[in-house]
Recover the amino acids of this structure.
């Protein structure tokens, strides 16, 4: 709306309301004050910080604002006048951008607030939080869970004072009070004056399914159309100046504001601290300096902050030197990563006179509206331009995602916004009335920069937002424009919209693109130019505590002392790399009714096995990561606490045989080192990565990167010298079955091993620990010496039999967390790998049946999340053990260990009943479930070879086939066929540690192990009726847990878990001792495992001989994170064992105990950790077009045709779960991908 300046008459009582807001430094200097904190920038975030710091009367705070007062400036007080506040006004910095390549080389205005309140004083007042996933991504990338949605929600509520709208209408159904705050400082409200399009916008949401109504877009779930919330208080604009610097706050004697104070540099107060600011009040005038006693807080915005840092000598040293600026601190990221939203105005001629244009053309009406506002704060001027907003995604199968990853933070985060307004933005034609639907790209992939080209601090910075510079953003904008036209075609607009202006729904893509290039602009939301990164990261500008990263050029502190950046420049909206999540469950517990391993000659045992299920170590390099070791340590402590529950009072005789609740941390760690071993879940040696990425082995479609045809689909091994066939393991048999459902498809499965028939150890569930290692049905691999495990080389079982590792595993069926799969989707850029898209395959795969004893399973699982008509048989335990009830009882006694009715629901945290791949007392394997008896196959591969040899076998075959790192292959005498350096890298596995307790019982595994007559009777019972103790594997309960978010390890490293609901470690409960027991006594085990590891290892070769064993280095606990997790998991095991349930049951632990020192625990971990045998990731997926990874998201090998990879080697991250379920899921989706390719 254009108003004549003669109308700017306003009767307001707003002045410099306190002597604490000063306009002249001389007035401040006379007061002879010192300040603890100096805030550079009196804008949105700066004023919040100043207010909150000055709540403490012992803190003195000074705000330096370059602009002037916000008082009595009509355009930043009247909400509807917001479009007039910028550009080319006194309250705007009046920046312009560089020429924007995607916008026909146009240079556009780039408004930023040059006034107290900063851009909160000149913006359009829209108050939208974004999606929960946006903040969770911050937490993931920074490694600081404090930036997650759940941790920030209290601040969101603390900030808000939600009030009724100006007209006090009934707001029921327009927002959700449960997600808002009502006692904060920042005033938020709904629109206070209706427009004629309001009801039509809402009505259209009932007519078009594509545009659902969302009662509150600020709930964390933003998708859909809803009522805009805005920062308006009783008809006037609410900014950080009017709220956080309101009269009652600036009256504080410890809070001062100096206006017209333009900061030019931050100066070193001492050799390694920055506490001095340099500023002027008139360009060309005298320079002043002030030194803060505690900290400088730089809050100059995403343009101002990097500008000041660069002129202070903080940035890219070589660039600064070339400009004649002395480098103080080399931080190349300063000014990079500028991210902004792009906006496009689309207007429609409408059949109405009640739009903005009427008042714009009628000065009498305009004056009356202003008078109404001035008198009563009512009427059309009480609101900003928009009353409704919509947030939407382009389809997941959009063609652009075949080339590029999805830039959105997650599947519930919008790609674009639609803004609905009752008029035309800009100058309208001389006649007609209009409405607008303005599309905006809300999840941009484009990145720009803020730089300088002069040492003159008063020269404007060089601003290049690179708007629509990414093909993804341009594609989204085009689709958003089409979406606007579809919305305008709803029946609600039939008698209202006459015609669009400019392009329309019949315009060609070329015409739409021309319109976009000529008319797109910025939404003026710059962010990310001083982005956060994890502590210790070599990229980024600030740590998660907002301290500027060190070291200085000539001094090496951990960060630049006393300088923080709390504004939007520290925000980033996309992963710099595939980072692990913040709050994923890190450990799990397996509860087993016995002593896992060799049983002592006497005694009966209960085992609680801890496993690190989100490991960070690579190689497997078990527990080599400090994070993994810490998680294992925490899991063992947890197992001990659980074992001490009252539930076990009359059952557990003693906490662990070798350790207990009194074991010191050192004792627990020593125990972990001595006893931890792999869970034999190796993943990642052919890891997945996004299309086009340079790392990884496979793309998200499981195709080997750079190859056409090969895909990687399973975990089993394969003794073939060249890629010519599929493998008969977990995923391979699934694919073979599903492909052969089509009678026109002939399928041949080539299995390196022999038949699974009549092998007792892979038929009887309880005998599963005997199936490997050193047996005919095992490849009998060993690892390289593991540095974190006292350089021990450990056995690394993989199934050498039909069914692969599904024939030799421990039968646990755990899917992992929803976040595990959503992270796959994020990293691969393919939403088909997300939880919601894979759930149908999970259910399709499952045939959930009653347990062997047909007991009542109510409360032991959730039928709603399972399938009952699939091929893969799963069930609950079919024979009770004496520890079952105690484990569950302990969950009611210890809040740290809650009960979870179904860990396969997508939310895994807590302890629950294990779901098992057992069919009426028999081991259910992929060979049984997915290959039909008598199926005929042919020998000619007319279409594809499907490589499903597992995370060890797949990279081994690829490398011997000449697919891998060309230089390495050449050195081995192998002719390189296709250069894919990611092949065999990224091996990820779970680490496991056995912790046992002597118990007051004879009903444990040990009794039958020492009594051949009893053992024969149990086998006879199983053979006759498929009942008795042999119908189940060693564990009936599992637990999944996280170490605390404030764990010290996260000060150094990011959280490796996929998200806040994903475990760091597992606890496995066993009714006996897994390892060799003493000659007497009975035992139970609580086994910690690191399940969200940070460690990464590799599967490589050192010979051109295809029959030589591959070099397997899982790098178990190789990451400090993993070792830390293992230590904490170990402590957790002891805490669990201390529950009242175990009071009269556990007698004492073996080895370390709850009083063991960290050094003792670490030694135990190094000496005893093993693998869980869950290898994954060695041919990992990556987005199509990515130059890293091995397979595309459709599982085709990158750059090749005719070869796909369909096994866990394609997983970009190992799920926090026993990986059998994931392998089945990969196989199910792979079958559909292959069918679709050949339909």
């Amino acid at each position: 709306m254009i108003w004549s300046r003669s109308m700017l008459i306003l009767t307001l009582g707003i002045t410099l309301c306190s002597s604490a807001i000063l306009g002249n430094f001389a007035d401040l200097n006379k007061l002879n004050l010192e300040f603890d904190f100096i805030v550079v920038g009196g804008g949105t975030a700066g004023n919040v910080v100043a207010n909150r710091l000055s709540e403490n009367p012992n803190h003195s705070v000074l705000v330096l604002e370059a602009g002037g007062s916000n008082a009595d400036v009509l355009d930043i007080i009247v909400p509807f006048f917001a479009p007039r506040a910028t550009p080319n006004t006194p309250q705007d910095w009046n920046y312009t951008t560089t020429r924007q390549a995607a916008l026909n080389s146009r240079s556009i205005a780039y408004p930023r607030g040059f006034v107290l309140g900063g851009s909160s004083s000149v913006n359009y007042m829209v108050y939208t939080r974004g999606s929960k996933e946006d903040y969770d991504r911050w937490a993931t990338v920074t490694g600081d869970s404090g930036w997650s949605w759940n941790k920030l929600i209290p601040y969101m509520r603390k900030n808000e004072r939600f009030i009724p709208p100006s007209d006090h209408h009934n707001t029921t159904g327009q927002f959700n009070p449960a997600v808002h705050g009502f006692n904060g400082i920042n005033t938020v409200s709904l629109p206070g004056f209706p427009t004629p399009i309001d009801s039509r916008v809402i009505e259209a949401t009932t007519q078009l399914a594509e545009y659902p109504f969302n009662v509150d877009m600020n709930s964390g779930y933003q998708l859909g159309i809803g009522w805009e919330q805005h920062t308006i208080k009783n008809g006037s604009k609410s900014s950080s100046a009017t709220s956080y610097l309101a009269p009652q706050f600036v009256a504080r004697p410890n809070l001062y504001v100096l206006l017209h104070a333009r900061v030019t540099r931050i100066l070193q107060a001492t050799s390694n601290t920055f506490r001095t600011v340099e500023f002027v009040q008139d360009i060309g005038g005298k320079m002043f300096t002030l030194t803060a006693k505690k900290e400088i807080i730089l809050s100059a915005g995403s343009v101002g902050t990097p500008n000041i840092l660069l002129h202070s000598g903080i940035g890219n040293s070589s660039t600064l030197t070339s400009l004649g600026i002395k480098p103080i601190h080399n931080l190349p990221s300063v000014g990079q990563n500028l991210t902004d939203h792009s906006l496009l105005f689309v207007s429609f001629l409408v059949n109405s006179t009640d739009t903005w244009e009427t008042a714009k053309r009628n000065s009498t009406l305009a004056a009356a509206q202003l008078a109404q506002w001035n008198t009563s704060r009512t009427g059309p001027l009480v609101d900003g331009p928009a009353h409704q907003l919509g947030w939407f995604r382009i389809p997941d199968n959009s063609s652009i995602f075949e080339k590029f990853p999805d830039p959105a933070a997650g599947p519930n985060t919008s790609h674009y916004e639609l803004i609905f307004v009752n008029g035309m933005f800009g100058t309208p034609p001389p006649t007609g009335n209009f409405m607008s639907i303005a599309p905006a790209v809300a999840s941009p992939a484009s990145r720009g920069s803020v730089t300088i080209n002069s040492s003159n601090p008063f020269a404007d910075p060089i601003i290049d937002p690179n708007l629509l510079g990414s093909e993804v953003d341009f594609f989204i904008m085009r689709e958003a424009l089409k979406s606007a036209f579809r919305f305008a075609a709803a029946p609600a607009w039939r008698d209202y919209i006459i015609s669009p202006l400019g392009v329309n729904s019949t315009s060609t893509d070329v015409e739409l693109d021309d319109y976009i290039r000529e008319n797109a602009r910025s939404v003026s939301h710059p962010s990310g130019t001083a982005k956060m990164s994890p502590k210790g990261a070599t990229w980024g500008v600030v740590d998660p505590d907002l301290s500027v990263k060190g070291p200085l050029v000539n001094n090496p502190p951990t960060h630049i002392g006393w300088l923080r950046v709390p504004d939007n420049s520290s925000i980033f909206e996309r992963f710099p790399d595939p980072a692990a999540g913040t709050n994923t469950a890190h450990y799990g517990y397996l509860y087993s009714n016995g002593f896992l391993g060799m049983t002592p000659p006497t005694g009966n045992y209960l085992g609680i096995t801890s496993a690190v299920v989100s490991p960070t170590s690579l190689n497997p390099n078990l527990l080599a990561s400090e994070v993994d070791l810490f998680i294992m340590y925490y899991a063992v402590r947890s197992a001990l606490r659980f074992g001490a529950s009252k539930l076990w009072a009359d059952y557990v005789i003693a906490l662990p045989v070798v350790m207990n609740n009194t074991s010191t941390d050192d004792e627990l760690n020593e125990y972990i080192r001595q006893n931890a071993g792999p869970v034999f879940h190796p993943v990642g040696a052919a890891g997945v990565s996004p299309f086009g990425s340079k790392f990884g082995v496979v793309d998200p479609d499981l195709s080997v990167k750079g190859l056409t045809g090969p895909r990687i689909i399973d975990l089993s091994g394969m003794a073939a010298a060249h890629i010519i066939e599929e493998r008969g393991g977990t995923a391979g048999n699934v694919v073979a079955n599903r492909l052969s459902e089509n009678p026109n498809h002939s399928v041949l499965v080539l299995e390196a091993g022999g038949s699974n028939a009549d092998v007792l150890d892979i038929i009887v569930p309880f005998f599963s620990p005997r199936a490997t290692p050193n047996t005919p049905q095992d490849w009998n691999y060993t690892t390289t010496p593991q540095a974190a495990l006292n350089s021990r080389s450990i056995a690394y079982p993989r199934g050498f039999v039909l069914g692969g590792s599904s024939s030799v595993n421990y039968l646990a069926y755990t899917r992992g967390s929803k976040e595990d799969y959503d992270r796959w989707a994020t990293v691969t850029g393919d939403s088909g790998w997300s939880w919601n898209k894979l759930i149908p395959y999970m259910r399709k795969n499952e045939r959930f049946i009653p347990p062997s004893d047909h007991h009542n399973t109510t409360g032991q699982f959730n039928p709603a999340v399972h399938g009952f008509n699939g091929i893969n048989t799963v069930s609950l335990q079919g024979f009770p053990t004496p520890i079952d009830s105690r484990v569950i009882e302990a969950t009611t006694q210890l809040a740290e260990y809650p009960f979870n009715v179904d860990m396969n629901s997508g939310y895994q945290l807590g302890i629950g009943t294990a779901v098992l791949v057992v069919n009426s007392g028999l081991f259910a394997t992929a060979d049984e479930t997915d290959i039909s008896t008598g199926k005929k196959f042919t020998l000619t591969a007319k279409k594809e070879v499907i490589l499903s040899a597992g995370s060890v076998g797949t990279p081994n075959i690829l490398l011997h086939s000449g697919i891998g790192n060309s230089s390495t292959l050449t050195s081995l005498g192998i002719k390189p066929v296709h250069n894919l350096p990611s092949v065999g890298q990224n091996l990820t596995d779970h680490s496991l540690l056995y912790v046992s307790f002597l118990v007051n019982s004879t009903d444990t595994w040990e009794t039958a192990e020492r009594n051949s007559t009893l053992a024969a009777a149990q086998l006879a019972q199983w053979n006759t009726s498929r009942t008795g103790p042999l119908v189940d594997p060693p564990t009936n309960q599992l637990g999944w847990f996280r170490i605390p978010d404030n764990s010290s390890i996260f000060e150094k490293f990011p959280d490796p878990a996929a998200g806040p609901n994903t475990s760091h470690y597992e606890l496995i409960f066993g009714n006996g001792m897994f390892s060799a027991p003493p000659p007497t006594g009975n035992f139970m085990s609580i086994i910690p495992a690191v399940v969200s590891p940070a460690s990464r290892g590799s599967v490589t070769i050192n010979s051109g001989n295809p029959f030589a064993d591959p070099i397997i280095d899982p790098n178990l606990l190789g990451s400090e994170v993993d070792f830390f997790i293992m230590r904490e998991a170990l402590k957790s095991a002891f805490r669990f064992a201390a529950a009242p349930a175990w009071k009269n049951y556990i007698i004492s632990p073996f080895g370390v105990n709850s009083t063991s020192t960290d050094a003792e625990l670490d030694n135990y971990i190094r000496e005893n950790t093993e693998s869980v045998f869950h290898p994954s990731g060695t041919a990992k997926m990556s987005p199509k077009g990515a130059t890293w990874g091995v397979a595309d998201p459709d599982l085709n090998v990158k750059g090749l045709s005719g070869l796909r990879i369909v096994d866990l080697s394609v997983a970009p991250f190992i799920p926090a779960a026993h990986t059998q379920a994931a392998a089945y899921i990969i196989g199910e989706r792979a079958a559909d991908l292959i069918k679709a390719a050949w339909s």
Remarks:
- The chain is about 25% helix and 20% strand.
- The CA atoms of residues 721 and 1106 lie 6 Å apart.
- The longest strand covers residues 287-298.
